## 1
Amino acid sequence: MSVDTVSLTGWGRTAPTTALRFRPRTYEEAAATVRGCGPRGSIARGLGRAHGDAAQNAGGSVLDMTALNRIRTIDAGSGRVVCDAGVSLHRLMEVLLPLGWFVPVTPTTRYVTVGGAIGADIHGRNQHLAGSFSRHVQELELLTAGGEIRTVRPGTALFDATAGGLGLTGVILSATLRCHRVTSAWMSVDTERAVDLDDLLDRLTAGDHRYRYSSAWIDLRARGRATGRSVLTRAEHVPRYALPARARRTPLSFRPGPLPSAPALVPEALLGGAPATLFNELRYRGAPTYRIGELQRLAAFFHPRDGLPQWHRAAGRAGSVRYQFAVGHGQEEALRRIVHRISRRRCPTSDAVLKRFGAGDPGWLSFPVPGWALALDLPAALPGLARFLDSLDEEVAGAGGRVCLAKDSRLRPELLAAMYPRLSDFRSLRAELDPGGAFRSDLSRRLSL
Amino acid sequence: MKDAFGAPQSLLVLGGTSEIALATARRLIALRTRTVRLAGRPSPALDAAAADLRARGADVRTVGFDALDAASHEAVLGAVFAEDDIDMVLLAFGIAGDQGRDEEEPLAAVRVAQTNYTGAVSAGLVCAGALQAQGHGSLVVLSSVAGERARRADFIYGSSKAGLDAFTQGLGDALHGTGVHVMVVRPGVVRSATAQATATGTASGTVPAAPPTAPRGGAALLAPERIVAARSASARFASAPLEASPLTTTPEAVAEAIVTGLRRRSETVWVPGSLRAVMSALRHVPRPLFRRLPI
Ligand SMILES: Cc1cc2nc3c(=O)[nH]c(=O)nc-3n(C[C@H](O)[C@H](O)[C@H](O)COP(=O)(O)OP(=O)(O)OC[C@H]3O[C@@H](n4cnc5c(N)ncnc54)[C@H](O)[C@@H]3O)c2cc1C
Ligand SMILES: NC(=O)c1ccc[n+]([C@@H]2O[C@H](COP(=O)([O-])OP(=O)(O)OC[C@H]3O[C@@H](n4cnc5c(N)ncnc54)[C@H](OP(=O)(O)O)[C@@H]3O)[C@@H](O)[C@H]2O)c1
């Protein structure tokens, strides 16, 4: 097992802290690391795609799980997969697609681990139908504070605390997943433009149930009557028989292009105010008003930016902040106010995404609630951003909404309990299972989780 | 923990009555700071400072600390860190001395050097060690523009700050990559709003020979921060000729620059910012000419 001292940040590259990084290759090594962690505790880390400080642990131990990367069994008939927690979704796609299976949920990057996907209970463009990642987990093995390994199944308190529990209940060592059947690696994509926010909400409400995948890019620089104008893309997997002849020859080949697709080529943080407006204008005008059935490769549809691994560095030394919040159905007024406030402030953002959520999952700190979720990236160096986001938090909390903890790097701790009603359960379960604080992260210290 | 914008949740001030430090603490409390430890020599002013910050909603405690008693630093500061993480240490103690007297009384001059330099070396190293152990945090050190180039008017104070500044830069390099961020702050002449009002009130050119006397009448009614202010840092740190210069600043401006520096994780901060250019020019002025400059 390799050990080194490293300075770590999340994907947003803010607030670096230093920890001892262990890279266990066996469950025993992982257990020994947890047992031997000092007073500053330990935390699991996957591929470090969480934006904030969820996977770092200042002065303590960090378990880099990426060496635990074996896919143990695949049941090609039922789509049941047992794999180590350090396996990436990218790897799973490579292996599963040729067999006619797809991961049940994918975020907009496939470079996340299964452990990270459960730890943050990630959601994808199919959340409105399929829920978040942990809904598709049948079982997991959890390394707990004493160093023993427990099998955890859905429907138990420990499972609900672990799904979205940000690594604070223990280290997930392996998981059993149920995958989704596909007959090709192609997507049929329908695109439409919405002229403003109300139009967008109407379209999402009316049509989402007809698609497996749906989300909208929203132009947060448009103002006045155009505030909230968006491009809505919704898609289905293409059945093999519907593929054009050429694609039908290798229907399941997973060949992510080496370069990101066009809109993603421009790192938004490089764009100051005016260029961002221009870029958004082009992106909006460039999108078809209405187009159905466009064929796209799976990777191009789901992970347009994965070809350019370093794009997040564009925000410069100060890094970037991802702000993602959700408010329930019936809170459209709050959503409208927030969108208007962001637009009026002219934030340099060009990749905001709005998604309509369906039913949430039982994870105590799991993010999705039925309603609306908006996510955007902002350069941390933007003057006055800290206070601005604080005031948005007030608005979100006031509407009974919440911000996503896996993305968070700056929430005021006082607001947490209002946003996550099961927080006290989470805290007491941790106090009971882990009285010595074997699992801690910078996020847990910052928010007193 | 600090958030994405570098705003700390807990703060340790060394030199707990320092005007600049208190202005900074007030600003940080308005952001994320909930815990403040004020280390300093026990005095009513220290208690008053703590009470003021407490009234702003922070959990504040004072800690007995004397910069001149280096032997005690490890124990005193170690106890603060043992309680909980400290996200930011603000090293703010310092004395200006009195150049005229200090030249006559070497022991008085040594006291300036021991407070500003040796005291800071020991306290700085103790804090750096503790921050390194916790794997994160910022050490912010108040140096001075006076340390950038020795001036006839205040070279005893200036040399102590030059030593402190060099020490801090080196420490910053030593801690690079350890998760600990070290920031040198070089303010020009810092005057609180009240002191500035007094200064502009006096006829131009006539600089008060002695530090302004304690405010007459109603002193007890003044808020603690005003009492501290009335002790007028300007008279202690500023040498006369710079006083009228546009390069003077206020504790609030220094506090704001510190908050910005934390956000950017800067290593050096000048206040006001224009000092950077001015000083880089002054640094290269030949000595015969420098001696004759009215600064
Ligand atoms: C470009 C980009 C797009 C994204 N899009 C989406 C999206 O669409 N939807 C969404 O929900 N998220 C999205 N995310 C966030 C990302 O999916 C999550 O943060 C995910 O957790 C990252 O996985 P990781 O393996 O990198 O985990 P890390 O970032 O390393 O860790 C994340 C959390 O999981 C915990 N963890 C990791 N491994 C384990 C383990 N083995 N056992 C226990 N806990 C563990 C960590 O302690 C930490 O709390 C996106 C991120 C990026 C960078
Ligand atoms: N004001 C300026 O113009 C200016 C300009 C550039 C740099 N600076 C530097 O900035 C720092 C703060 O300035 P300021 O204006 O805020 O100063 P200030 O209000 O005079 O405060 C100085 C602080 O140092 C403390 N101190 C002095 N000797 C000490 C000792 N032996 N042990 C412990 N504490 C001691 C004082 O504590 P007591 O209350 O116990 O005396 C006081 O808290 C200083 O280092 C100064 O050199 C100031």
## 2
Amino acid sequence: MKIALVGNPNVGKSTVFNALTGSNQQVGNWAGKTVERKTGIIRRDNLDIELVDLPGTYSLTAYTQEEIVTRQYILREKPDVVMAMVDASNIERNLYLVLQILELAPRVVIGLNMMDLAKSSGIILNATELAKALNVSVVEIVAAKGIGIDKFLSEAVRVGLLQKDPLVHQVPYPSELEEKIRAMENLLKDTSWASLYPLRWLALKRLERDPEIGQEWQSVSAPESSKDKKRDSCCDSGDALNYKLKKIIELPGNDLLRSYEEEGWTRDHFEMAFADAKYNYISQILPRFLTQEDLRKPSLTDSLDRWILSPIWGYPIMILVLALVFWASFIASAPLGEAVSQGMALAADFLVNLLQWSHAPTFLMSLVRDGIFAGVGAVLAFVPQIAIFFAFFSFLQDSGYLARAAFLGDRLMQLMGLHGKSFFSLVSSFGCNVPGIMATRTLEDPKDRLITMLLNPLIPCVPRLGVMSAVVAAFFPGTRGAMIMLSLLLISMLLVMISALFMRRVVDQRERSAFVMELPLYHLPTLRNVLWPTWHKTYTFLKRAWTFILAASVVVWLLSSFPQGVPMDSTWAGKMGEWLEFIGKPLGFDWKIMVAIVFGFTAKETTLSTLGILYGVAADASQSIAQAMTGAMSPLKAYTFLVVYMLYIPCLASVVTTYKESGSLRWTAFGIAYNLILSFIIGWIIFHGGQALGFQ
Amino acid sequence: MERSLGELKPGERACVARINGGGALRRRMMDMGIVPGVELEVVRCAPMGGPLQIRLKGYYLAMRRGECAKIVVSGEQRVAIKHTLASR
Ligand SMILES: Nc1nc2c(ncn2[C@@H]2O[C@H](COP(=O)(O)OP(=O)(O)OP(=O)(O)O)[C@@H](O)[C@H]2O)c(=O)[nH]1
Ligand SMILES: [Mg+2]
């Protein structure tokens, strides 16, 4: 049995999905987190159920990328039952989508979620009355606390097993409209499409001139999706959805539509009339199941917003919040990182001693000490940073603050000619560029989408920030380090702004795009929603360290230790560096840095592990990579390295995602070239500018 | 008296008379519940020409000034309408 979770954005669909399937879909308090469908299999009473989590949508006349996914799924895959999730605290608008669903699919169960929020804001809902009004079963749930979820599913299964489609109450349209619908129904009832969809829905869509009606699609599985997961599991994006056009059927009714148009009933007119009728119907039935307590007290959201969105205090608060997040994750976490380093050094010592004792060959000892522990150990040192960052980030996004930050940041986005929703994409990129690029799907305009996609790599992700903070800590100890980090973040932000304007030119975007976004109610994040993503991200990072980074470390160690017995710059790595040196020369980089930067393309952390190996940091020595580097580089060179490293190229995973999302090799190549050239130019300016100013 | 939504001051309420312009934006607004007859309230404006925070049907919406200019509202207040949620 196929069951689909459908509903407005941010009503708790993924929360229910996670609870039922035990998976880990992104949850947060802003609209548009899920951008691809995700399937989970559950067994219930000897029945295999395919539960599908879909992106939230405001209507079934979808036009943004992620909404199209939902519409296509319902239209083409035809789930047996639709679990229609509704936000009880915002039921009036939520029911609009429910009415649309009911016109298309009769087997529906309504899940009345967020009952706790509704109650605390003085809304009393009578589920039985709502069920009676629409003739659909209704289940009350509080998904965040796991209340009612099981009942929701069993009700859906029950409806799915019914012999006959239940008779739901249809929206009554005004008689003038009803006549036109009936005339259209008569024309369509003998077509092959009438056997696929409810006749009334077909007629409505035909009157609205829905472009998809009359086309037949066939789903083709996406073979890459399983490979994707292996490539980078930190950026699990769900299943891709692909269809092929099978054929186009000529549907009758064109003459009728023309004659209506002459009477003034254009497509827009029909759409408006249908929407109007639905909203009218909702306000008619609303009093039957909703009573509003007249609380005088302003709600929590009202009082918080008075400060957080205040024209005066809003921005200082936002800066404070951001500063806190970055301070806690990249500066305050330093002792923890050091503890991990020391732990690794002890472990390396122990292992090497063990090897010595067992008379293992020296190259094996070198591999363990100079390859594995120097490489992987360096990367593991910023596990605390990753954990702390994601804990804060999850808290912010699950509380509802992120949507407020988008509201406040929108002025800046406008200045850059960007869409307000680009903000979410760019902020997500701090976690990892891949979900950031995926999040561009919520943008309606394809050009806006492309611009945002190309900007994403300029945002340093946490692993990149981790590497940077390790280098900063060595070269610029104390409070100077914080200032240096801040200056780097400012450079990145400035470049995002300038690049945005530049990309608008390149992409030839002249339109100023629209921005209509819901501001959700605040609520206290659940422990699960904060700790689970934090653990998940940390775990995938750890996994990458002991698989991918380990392999890369071994490769780099091999390259840098063979042929054996020669000095470092005549090894294979040294030879490789020699070819690259001419690129690095204008920036003052030696060959080791160039090799590390090139390896960083596979995954950004590799740069640090490579540096660790190339600078010969023996893990048993008390000296860290950064300390070894301080001997080899001046602070100015280090700063240039930091800037270039922050900007130079997105990692392999983000390049692949850019290609998949843009569907264009040309734009992907353009993005890479842009980053490379930009980082080189900025690096050159900083290095030579710094020298001219007398910095070392 | 007809004005655009962008001309309302924070705290003011008005009813939607019509939405200028067509296409995707108007449809989006319809999906969000902005149809003729609905009462809107401007809660606050972000400074320096930033977006507006609007309340309707018991929930909050952020909208840029450009979009607000397309929504024509009529000044007369329908006092009888009671908001759900947050309107207190
Ligand atoms: N107070 C409260 N919050 C809830 C409840 N159910 C879910 N939430 C919260 O609502 C927010 C949205 O939940 P999601 O599951 O991400 O919503 P979604 O419908 O998948 O959203 P999109 O993927 O963006 O369409 C999260 O912050 C949840 O923690 C509930 O019953 N009560
Ligand atoms: Mg979701």
